[in-house]
Amino acid sequence: MASSPSITRYLTGITTTGTPHLGNYVGSVRPSVQFSRHDNVQSFYFLADYHALIKCDEPARIQRSTLEIAATWLACGLDPERVTFYRQSDIPEIPELTWFLTCVSAKGMLNRAHAYKAAVDKNLAKNEDPDNDVSAGLFMYPVLMGADILMFNAHKVPVGRDQVQHLEMTRDIAQRFNNLYGEHFTLPEVVIDDAVALLPGLDGRKMSKSYDNTIPLFTPRPQLQKLIAGIVTDSRAPGEPKDTEGSALFQIYQAFASEDETQALRGAYAEGIAWGDAKQLLFERIDREIAPLRERYETLMAEPAQIEATLLAGAEKAHALSQPFMSRLRQAVGLRSLATGAKPVAKAAKSTKSTKAGFKQYRERDGLFYFKLLDEQGSTLLQSRGFQTPQEAGRVIGEMQQLPHDLVNSFADRLEPVDNEVALAASKVLEALAKATGDQ
Ligand code: TRP
């Protein structure tokens, strides 16, 4: 499928440590699935199981969670044909890229990562060694996340507020890499959807596993009813008017109901609906939406081999992008085949800071004006035909320099593996062009 420049790539990962709950559904799964159906959107959703290893050392739990999360997304309508849905650990280029990025990441920047700093602060408060019980995995978390994003040159990354800093770091790392090795990475933008309200949990605080106040998304009907009965309310008696403001029950209802239904419940609150009846309404409303999904979920959960096959097919799609991109990056950093001609280091070193790189204009003995595009070592990457005047040649250079960065990069992204000389040359040209257009 030819991608047009207006296609926006969205990417997001879900850490595989828990069982999806209603808060995940309302805040992430439901809007993402809807969004993935839009035109001009290319979506990548993946199960971040390498990230899971950072906080979970229970193998069975990771496996179980991976299955549950995959089944959840599929049951909720994610179309694996339309999106790229894969498991992080099926893409070996991700840890490889993580290492490349590690080597350009400032340690000082990682020291400032919220999750790491919180762990250190906790230790300091207890008068313990600052890095007590802190794994290097936790420290490297933002770099692994950067690799997830940069591997597919995502434009937009929908995440929760707590992840904003990771996106800033990803941009920082990408920029450093680009400065050193050429414009390989798109700088991703964070997307925070403020319209998606945070769902309160059973106790009224944000629904979150860490507060132990969640309602599992696909809990069986009777359990769902029981859990909903446990949502905190105030002690107003039946007949007494009730406040919608600050009512967890009301907010949860709102996340599932239409405008009209919400208005109706508002009216019932004012008229003093009994809490028990309000809970019954909420239960029925949630179950109306969830029941068909739950049925699909149960079918999927009964066929784990099917899910495995779906994920492997997704990995293949992802791999078709990550593999060629990674060989391009390997080239860029100098992990290269020795058979393709190694340049003497001294020469390269002398010509760093682009003494030779860029467009060069000159006149030939035929009296015509030419230009070429040179790489750092002064090798010719592009050669123009002859022009009557230097102005004409200059204008063409100018036009090439107007090429938007993203456009040039998007071509580079779509090149085939660079293991042969022609493709390698082509990717070098694009790299140099990207540089020359960026340097104006
Ligand atoms: N760190 C994210 C979270 O906890 C999960 C994640 C891992 C992710 N890799 C990602 C999200 C890449 C977006 C993009 O929510």
C-alpha-based Rg, rounded: 27 Å
Q: Beta-sheet strand percentage?
A: 5-15%
The order of strands across the largest sheet is 1-2-3
**Sequence stretches where pLDDT stays below 50 over 5 or more residues:** 348-352
- The count of DSSP E runs of length 2 or more, i.e. the number of strands, is 8
CATH architecture of the largest domain: 3-Layer(aba) Sandwich
- Report the total helices: 17
User: At the third CATH level, what is the topology name of the largest domain?
Assistant: Rossmann fold
What is the helical fraction, as a range of percent?
40-55%
Distance between the termini: 33 Å
What is the highest CATH level, the class of the largest domain?
Alpha Beta
Structural class: mainly alpha
What is the ordering of alpha helices and beta strands? EHEHHEHHHHEHEHHHHHHEEEHHH
Write the layout of secondary structure elements.
Blueprint: E1 8-15, H1 22-36, E2 41-48, H2 49-55, H3 59-75, E3 84-87, H4 93-102, H5 107-111, H6 114-125, H7 136-151, E4 156-158, H8 164-181, E5 189-191, H9 221-229, H10 248-256, H11 259-270, H12 275-301, H13 304-333, H14 345-350, E6 358-363, E7 369-374, E8 380-383, H15 390-402, H16 405-413, H17 421-438
Helix pairs in contact: 2-7, 3-12, 4-7, 4-13, 7-8, 9-12, 10-12, 16-17
